[in-house]
Amino acid sequence: MTVLSLLAMAVIAWALWDSLPELVTTQEARGRRGRVQVPRIVLAGLLPAAVVALAVIMAAASVVAGRLRAWLPPALVSSPRAQAASTNAVFVLLPPFITVLHAGLLLETAGHHVPLPQLITAAFGLLIAGLGGVLPRLRPAHPDPAGDRVRRAGAVAMMLLGAGCVAGAFLLPALPVAVATAYAGGGIAGLTILIPRLWPRRR
């Protein structure tokens, strides 16, 4: 998915290249601060570079996690399957979201009117729903039935939250919907970690 997203971003940039101004204004002059402009190659290449950097960081993190696994308590270590699931989720879910952001920014800069806040918020909702689908597979290395139940409930909540974000993007002001979804999604994810540790395990 990462490679396909990079190809899609390259095609979008190529198709819109002639419509982009040679210098793109990223910040208008304000007070004593002058206007900030960057070459169009920076705008066209910034998010693809971010995807490549993300892939490198995730690959390095997987190597480091594998080497630290033997030195950490089992309660703090995810299983190899969970580690693979989280890595795959990042590579599968984030690049399409970044591609939508890339396309929206370039279209807007090229002078095409697009509902950018709505598109980005809807894409963010799909990202949250996708993360919810992965949540039940993020199990620790040791058996944790109570935690599995909490993660399944959290997955349902995350998917419903993502669906609500997609709908709200076109029915309500997009930015508040995205911000509320981000806070709620972080809260759900945090609860799936805290609740199994706070509740006493049944013997």
What does this structure look like?
- It is a single chain.
- By secondary structure, the chain is mainly alpha-helical.
- The chain is 71% helix and 4% strand.
- A two-stranded antiparallel ribbon has the order 1-2.
- A hairpin with an 8-residue loop joins β1 (23-27) and β2 (36-39).
- α1 (2-16) packs antiparallel against α2 (40-68), α1 packs parallel to α3 and α4 (116-134) runs antiparallel to α5.
Q: What is the CA–CA distance across the termini?
A: 43 Å
Radius of gyration: 20 Å
Main β sheet profile: 2 strands, antiparallel
> What does the overall shape look like?
globular
Strand sequence of the main sheet, in spatial order? 1-2
- What is the mean pLDDT? 83
Query: Which assembly state applies to the chains in this document?
Result: single chain
pLDDT < 50 runs, ≥5 residues: none
Helix content: over 70%
β-strand number: 2
Number of helices: 6
By secondary-structure content and strand pairing, the structural class works out as mainly alpha
Q: What letter string, H or E per element, gives the SSE order?
A: HEEHHHHH
Proportion of residues in β-strands: under 5%
Please outline the helices and strands:
Blueprint (H helix, E strand, L loop, with lengths): L1 H15 L6 E5 L8 E4 H29 L11 H30 L6 H19 L10 H27 L2 H25 L5
Antiparallel strand pairs: 1-2
Helix pairs in contact: 1-2, 1-3, 2-3, 3-4, 4-5, 4-6, 5-6
Care to give the gist of this entry?
This protein is mostly helical. It has helices spanning 2-16, 40-68, 80-109, 116-134, 145-171, 174-198, and strands spanning 23-27, 36-39.
